[in-house]
């Protein structure tokens, strides 16, 4: 026994396992497509992500996941089959899936629907969750209410108070009448622009400051100069103006005061929180949007694990995002990253499950094709013609793979599968249930030391494990062995023929 002989023997085994693994991959992909394993696993993974894998939160997480799947962001990803033939095939798949779930006792994770997307972009999930929590709408309602209260309490009412004192002191009840009305109209227009989303909060504060300064300038021009009442009035206006945004530091503080934090927005789901009471007060004042959202909040519970995760993300937003940046957008980015991390773990679980399924399929293939690794190795070792034929086919397959190398393993495997399609039937592999193979196995089992455990069973088990390692593993190994064999020179026939 020499090195070329060992390489030929290894090459024959590797090529056999590669072809069987490609067959197993096709079967697994077909079964997975029919039973929608990827889509089901994705839905279950999202439920686990929402529940924190806590059994007591499973029902809430399921309802929430169902609601997310109904959002336009995710619903549009599920492309149903079109055309009579495609719908017929889809109906058959659904029927098979229903039978499978009945036999295994598993629930249909899609509820009343029959399918779901097998991939969800992180942006779609984040937008769906934000829509479900109504974060943007809640933030807008709270900011609008706080801004209006700020304008009334810190600008308009104080200005009217000092103006009333001035009018009483001068006995002129019409003093600055048109100017104050114009200020009130401009302020209301600024608030309407903000409510309509035409300008942001920082720009709104700047506009309020600008309009107040214009009012100050007009009042200074209209009032008599060097009059102690006028000077007192202007000093009090200056003090009021400082409450708007006298400098950048005060402006940042005011922005932070007016904008609710993400944590406060999440507290709306807690009917004992300060934010919930504030929101309820807004609704009680006749705000229709607040009333609608408040009704929905009462019907939409979130799991403790989800709230904990979202609060952690919210705290990160508060510590890393500038006060002038949109917190909701930043929060959405954090949710995207959180979803990505969860799906990475989910992918690992799916791969482990796929390995287990691959072993089962590999064992079934080994039994159905009588792929006995002991018998295959024995025939390759003792039959030089068989070994030479399979080795030549394996080498040619490796050369073709190098010529069509795309750098993408899946594509390369697909090209290889096309190139060797039918090899199991065309090449004289020592597998199957032909009389010759069965007689050879019977003779080989005569020297098997464990008579109560058939040698063939262990051979099938080894083949199943080899098939379960995947076509990618054997494909890479095939190329390496062919390179070693080529660099070492082709071998002649070795071993005894039988």
Write the layout of secondary structure elements.
Elements: H1 3-35, H2 37-51, H3 58-69, H4 72-75, H5 84-104, H6 122-133, H7 135-170, H8 177-195, H9 201-222, H10 228-245, H11 248-258, H12 262-266, H13 274-284, H14 288-299, H15 304-320, H16 327-368, H17 373-382, H18 384-403, H19 409-419, H20 423-426, H21 435-444, H22 455-468, H23 471-488
Helix pairs in contact: 1-16, 1-17, 1-18, 1-22, 1-23, 2-3, 2-16, 3-6, 6-16, 7-8, 7-10, 8-9, 9-10, 13-14, 15-16, 16-22, 18-19, 18-23
Q: How does this structure look, described?
A:
By secondary structure, this protein is mostly helical. Helices cover 76% and strands 0% of the residues. It is built from 23 helices and no strands. The chain has helices at residues 3-35, 37-51, 58-69, 72-75, 84-104, 122-133, 135-170, 177-195, 201-222, 228-245, 248-258, 262-266, 274-284, 288-299, 304-320, 327-368, 373-382, 384-403, 409-419, 423-426, 435-444, 455-468, 471-488. The longest helix has 42 residues, at 327-368. It is elongated. The model is unreliable at 490-498 (pLDDT under 50).
């Amino acid at each position: 026994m020499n090195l070329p002989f060992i390489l030929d023997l290894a090459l024959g085994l590797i090529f056999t396992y590669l072809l069987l693994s490609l067959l197993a991959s096709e079967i697994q992909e077909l079964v997975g497509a029919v039973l929608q394993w990827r889509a089901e696993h994705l839905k279950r993974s999202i439920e686990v992500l929402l529940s924190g894998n806590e059994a007591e939160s499973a029902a809430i997480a399921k309802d929430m996941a169902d609601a997310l799947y109904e959002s336009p962001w995710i619903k549009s990803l599920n492309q149903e089959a079109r055309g009579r033939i495609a719908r017929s095939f889809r109906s058959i798949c659904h029927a098979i899936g229903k039978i499978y779930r009945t036999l295994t006792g598993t629930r249909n994770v899609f509820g009343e629907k029959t399918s779901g997307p097998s991939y969800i972009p992180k942006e779609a999930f984040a937008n769906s969750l934000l829509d479900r929590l109504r974060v943007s709408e809640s933030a807008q309602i709270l900011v609008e209410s706080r801004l209006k209260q700020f304008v009334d309490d810190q600008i308009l009412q104080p200005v009217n108070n000092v103006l009333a004192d001035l009018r009483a002191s001068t006995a002129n009840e019409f003093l600055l009448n048109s100017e104050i009305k114009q200020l009130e109209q401009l302020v209301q227009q600024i608030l309407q622009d903000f409510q309509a989303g035409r300008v942001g909060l920082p720009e709104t504060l700047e506009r309020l400051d600008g309009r107040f300064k214009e009012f100050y300038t007009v009042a200074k021009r209209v009032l008599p100069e060097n009059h102690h009442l006028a000077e007192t009035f202007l000093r009090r206006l200056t003090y009021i103006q400082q409450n708007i945004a006298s400098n950048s530091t005060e402006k940042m503080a005011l922005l932070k005061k007016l904008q609710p934090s993400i944590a406060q927005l999440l507290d709306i789901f807690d009917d004992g929180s300060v934010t919930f009471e504030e929101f309820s007060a807004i609704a009680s004042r006749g705000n229709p949007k607040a009333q609608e959202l408040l009704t929905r909040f009462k019907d939409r519970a979130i799991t403790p694990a989800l709230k904990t995760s979202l609060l952690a993300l919210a705290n990160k937003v508060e510590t890393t995002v500038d006060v002038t940046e949109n917190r909701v957008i930043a929060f959405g980015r954090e949710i995207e990253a959180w979803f990505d991390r969860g799906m990475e773990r989910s992918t690992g679980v799916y791969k482990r499950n796929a390995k287990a399924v691959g072993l089962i399929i590999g064992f079934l293939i080994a039994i159905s094709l009588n792929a006995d690794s002991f018998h295959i190795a024995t025939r390759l070792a003792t039959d030089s013609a068989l070994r030479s034929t399979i080795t030549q086919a394996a080498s040619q397959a490796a050369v073709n793979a190098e010529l069509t190398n795309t750098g993408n393993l899946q594509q390369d495997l697909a090209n290889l599968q096309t190139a060797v399609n039918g090899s199991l039937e065309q090449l004289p592999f020592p597998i199957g249930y032909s009389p010759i193979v069965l007689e050879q196995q019977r003779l080989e089992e005569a020297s098997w030391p464990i008579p109560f455990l058939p040698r063939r069973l262990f051979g099938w088990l080894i083949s199943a494990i080899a098939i379960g390692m995947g076509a990618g593993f054997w494909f890479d190994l095939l190329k390496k062995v062919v390179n070693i064999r080529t660099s070492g020179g082709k071998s002649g026939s070795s071993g005894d023929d039988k």
